[in-house]
Amino acid sequence: MFIGLDLGTSGVRAVLLRDDGSVRDSAEAATPVAHPHPGWSEQDPADWIAATRAALGELGARQSLAGVRGIGLSGQMHGATLLDESGAVLRPCLLWNDTRSHAQAARLDADPDFRRISGNIVFPGFTAPKVLWVAEHEPEAFARTARVLLPKDYLSFWLTGRAASDMSDSAGTAWMDVGRRAWSDVLLAKSGMRRDQMPELLEGTGIVGPLRPEVARDLGLPEGALVIAGGGDNAASACGVGALAEGDGFVSLGTSGVLLAARDGFAPAPESAVHTFCHAIPDTWYQMGVILAATDSLNWLARVTGTRPADLTQALGPLRAPGRLRFLPYLSGERTPHNDSAIRGALLNLDIASEQADLTRAVIEGVSFALKDSLIALQSTGARLDRLLAIGGGTRSRYWVELLATVLNLPIDLPQSGEFGAALGAARLALCGVTGAAPSEVMTKPPVAETLLPRPDLTAACEAAHAAFAAAYPALRALP
């Protein structure tokens, strides 16, 4: 058997995979997030270990783990976990959605070498500007920093004692030559870092090492079980849904929104604000547009109205053309296509007659239009998407998925119920890493329960509404 561990922002999910690739069981445990100041988002790595113990403990209480041969890892990207010479954590991890380093990111991005070598804009959420912020604001912690690890790689370090990372996760640091799949000494030096402070780079199927004996005993796992490098959360999700080759892609309606396209080659276009990263499988890349508040936008509306998100969407009835009420979902800033950490959301055209259902429609329309912006940006790089698989909590709303299919003008497949996310992808990477099986044979697409097609009677109205949405951003940006 094989285990996939996915370290998300809200918790750890563990999936137990049989050697035939079928899922036997799963478990999860929550992790807290701290926001000590506006724009700050931090976690204590000790909570990741506690959640891993809890999830594996729940799994082990129901299933024998004696036959586990490998553990693959997936996790939230871009976090900065600083360790001293002894491997002790120096400060809480700065997470992907921490935007305090916007000034440092702008300075690094102004150096043309960063876009040229990394193939990406230096976003405030990336790792390099966060560590530069620590250097400038917490110099004592920076001076003691012997190594910087991404969140899932800290778990790998705890499990094995070896500091290693995979290509897909490391591509989001702004320290990597993404085309060459190697650390860039030029980019490291320009942000005040050294190669010896970086983990060893492996492909996602690479073996980090066996479990430390004391950790294996603690977790109830075999001492010979191997830890596999794994992948960043979106690359691992792509492995979970079989998005491996040109033309494959998915849309994720999670806390953030992601539109991902697998690529057979390296084709960066940083000016589009599209991310171009290494895939978790060898000699493959992927590109994605990212919006920072997808279901987070609906959760915000649910919070201020005192209504559950599911109840908000269930009250909408059949799909309708977009209304005049317009929502710009920039509650935490935005990545694709604007690269604007300062922008904030807006509701336009509010009317005395506006009701809760109108607000709900406006929110999910705004998120869908923002994902249309990402599709346009992806298409500008040459990425080809003929259809999409929809994953994430937002896909429980049929209204939302049908709207998204119409806005994007692409068929959207809804998978049958089951496991197909990042934890499954991590377990599949473990299976391939331990057994040598080909990813194309293991990382198959899930069975499709239903395909929602664009509504031809509404596509023109959606195109017009998206044009109005796109025109609102510069006007909002110009406000004091």
Automatic annotation (TrEMBL):
The record marks 6 as: Important for activity. It catalyses: D-xylulose + ATP = D-xylulose 5-phosphate + ADP + H(+). Its EC number is 2.7.1.17. CDD domains: ASKHA_NBD_FGGY_EcXK-like. The keyword DNA repair does not apply. The keyword ATP-binding applies. GO terms for biological process: D-xylose metabolic process; xylulose catabolic process. Keywords: ATP-binding, Carbohydrate metabolism, Kinase, Nucleotide-binding, Transferase, Xylose metabolism. The active site is at 233 (proton acceptor). It holds the Pfam family FGGY_C. Residues 250-431 form the Carbohydrate kinase FGGY C-terminal domain. Substrate binds at residues 77-78. It comes from the Bacteria. Residues 1-240 form the Carbohydrate kinase FGGY N-terminal domain. GO terms for molecular function: ATP binding; D-xylulokinase activity. InterPro entries: ATPase_NBD, Carb_kinase_FGGY, Carb_kinase_FGGY_CS, FGGY_C, FGGY_Carb_Kinase, FGGY_N, Xylulokinase. Belongs to the FGGY kinase family. Catalyzes the phosphorylation of D-xylulose to D-xylulose 5-phosphate. This is Xylulose kinase.
